[in-house]
Amino acid sequence: MNSLWSSMAKRAEPYIPGEQLNKNNILKLNTNENPYPPSPKVIEAITEEVGRNLRLYPSPTMETLRQSIGTYYGLKMENVFIGNGSDEVLAFSFMAFFEPEKEILFPNITYSFYPVYAKLFDIPYKEVKLKDDFSLDIKQFFNSKGGVIFPNPNAPTSIYLPLEHVETIVKNNPNKAVIVDEAYIDYAPESAVSLVNKYDNLLVIQTMSKSRALAGLRIGFALGNEKLIHALIRIKDSFNSYPVDRLAMAGATAAINDKPYFEETTEKIIKIRGWTTDQLEELGFQVLPSATNFVFASHQGIEAETLYKELRDKDILIRYFGKEPIDNFVRITIGTDEEMQQLIEEIKHILI
Ligand SMILES: *Cc1c(COP(=O)(O)O)cnc(C)c1O
């Protein structure tokens, strides 16, 4: 710290992302990236765009991409906001809908970026304890003073909250924003997008980083009532008129328009998740019921930290959080068939 630092810079407690090792032949199962490449149409669209107008600023209103996402979900362009990754959309949402002095609610085990934003923007928060089975205790989220945010499915537990429960939380927070972070919803039964036209206090946030294999492109979006979207646009335009570049917009538009490719890769991952879960259970793991592209697992016979380290020695990276009450769990991203077979083989060796 330094006397030149603002109070904001001083109180910031930055998020620590999963390791990105610069090493070949690493089996990377630690940041929930897609094991498949993005749609070939994405590469085509970006390549075309490279040869076009990089000299010119991109569209500040991002209408082509907003229109495509709107059409995909049966919404209007006015219901869609786009940002540089959903992390940026989340940050803008904290600024647009939450207030200092009004306590917001989120689960005690959840995406660790939420407390980071809350601290940065000086928003008080309460971490609501999950039930013993790691599911959300929905009544605890009623009548918040300042709003609610949670991922569905939750991360890193992988557990999905049925849509009717999401709706009950939204209904029981009149005049407060309820933000549902649906980073993994494409691997789960049902999105809350269908409720956007019914409730003016619901904001659904999604990303192209996981199910559309575009973590490197940085595209996230929010879906909500026009008035909520308008607040996000005001924040964005007070921060950076062009957070999304021309290549990202071209690629993301192609990704959302290529539904068959998306469905094929998503279905494959869901199938491999089932196989991986069965294998881990056979080896004596407790695996929480996953509706995501990762599994959250624990074993009585080996400490999570030991498993993490031993796999790391074999060049397999998984995620270990090392904090109560999930300090005996590891989070493993679902890879390809071959990658999961390799993982299971290595775990067998470690357990013997
Ligand atoms: C991955 C993830 C995000 C961030 O996604 P980006 O769009 O890559 O910024 C947001 N929320 C949750 C719960 C995630 O797991």
Structure, explained:
It is globular, with a radius of gyration of 20 Å. The protein has helices spanning 7-11, 40-50, 63-73, 86-97, 113-120, 163-171, 226-236, 246-257, 259-282, 304-313, 337-351, and strands at residues 27-28, 80-83, 104-107, 125-128, 148-151, 178-181, 202-207, 220-224, 285-287, 294-299, 316-317, 319-320, 329-333. 36% of the residues lie in helices and 14% in strands. A five-stranded mixed beta sheet has the order 2-8-7-6-5, with helices on both faces. It has two domains: 18-37 and 260-351, Aspartate Aminotransferase, domain 1 (Alpha-Beta Complex); 40-257, Type I PLP-dependent aspartate aminotransferase-like (Major domain) (Aspartate Aminotransferase, domain 2, 3-Layer(aba) Sandwich). The mean pLDDT is 96. The protein is built from eleven helices and 13 strands. By secondary structure, the protein is an alpha/beta fold. α5 links the parallel β3 and β4. Bound molecules: pyridoxal-5'-phosphate (PLP). Residues 32, 85-87, 111, 151, 155, 181, 183, 207, 209, 215, 220 line the site of pyridoxal-5'-phosphate.
